[in-house]
């Protein structure tokens, strides 16, 4: 059963997705966090393809804390630059922009992504 918090996040998520969309030149950087890990993807919404992905499990930080989020942000920026992508649209996926989400975004900016 969905909690009130989940329903609130879904409502915010739909509002965000109605306003932003990713293309091949400027993909959408979407973030998902679970209790055990944090994930980031670069998505081309016109084709429905994932261009690059990173998670805290592949970076070696097998937990979902701020340091793991920074590692994921740096890794997704590295993969994006290797794929020739320099600008993205940030999709916080309904989460509040603080803590893990903010540290992932800051690390991606430090890695060379512009958004």
TrEMBL record:
CDD domains: Ribosomal_L18_L5e (cd00432). Keywords: Ribonucleoprotein, Ribosomal protein, RNA-binding, rRNA-binding. GO terms for cellular component: cytosolic large ribosomal subunit. One of its GO terms (biological process) is translation. One of its GO terms (molecular function) is 5S rRNA binding. Pfam families: Ribosomal_L18p. InterPro entries: Ribosomal_L18 (IPR057268), Ribosomal_uL18_bac-type (IPR004389), Ribosomal_uL18_bac/plant/anim (IPR005484). This is one of the proteins that bind and probably mediate the attachment of the 5S RNA into the large ribosomal subunit, where it forms part of the central protuberance. Belongs to the universal ribosomal protein uL18 family. Part of the 50S ribosomal subunit; part of the 5S rRNA/L5/L18/L25 subcomplex. Contacts the 5S and 23S rRNAs. This is Large ribosomal subunit protein uL18. It comes from Pseudarcicella hirudinis.
């Amino acid at each position: 059963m969905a909690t009130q918090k989940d329903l609130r996040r879904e409502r915010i998520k739909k509002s965000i997705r109605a306003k932003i969309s990713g293309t091949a030149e400027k993909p959408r950087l979407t973030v998902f966090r679970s209790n055990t890990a944090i994930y980031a993807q670069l998505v081309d919404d016109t084709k429905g393809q994932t261009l690059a992905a990173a998670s805290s499990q592949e970076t070696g930080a097998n937990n979902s804390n701020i340091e793991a989020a920074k590692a994921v942000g740096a890794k997704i920026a590295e993969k994006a630059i290797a794929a020739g992508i320099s600008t993205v649209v940030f999709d916080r996926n309904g989460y509040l922009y603080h803590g893990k989400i903010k540290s992932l975004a800051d690390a991606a900016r430090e890695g060379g992504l512009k958004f």
